[in-house]
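Query structure, 57 tokens:
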């Protein structure tokens, strides 16, 4: 559940940044590249932060 909340928050941030880039007249292909990169980073950090620790053997 915490991963879903983390990812939802990251998507909201990405949408805000993409809209800001659109208002600054940045070309759409670069906005798309930025969205893909940020979404990938968001998934990687979300998995790393919400991953359960392995119990010691």
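Result returned for the query:
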């Amino acid at each position: 559940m915490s991963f879903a909340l983390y990812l939802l928050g990251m998507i909201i941030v990405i949408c805000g940044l993409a809209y800001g880039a659109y208002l600054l007249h940045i070309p759409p292909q670069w906005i798309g590249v930025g969205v893909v990169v940020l979404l990938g980073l968001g998934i990687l950090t979300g998995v790393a932060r919400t991953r359960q620790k392995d119990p010691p053997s």
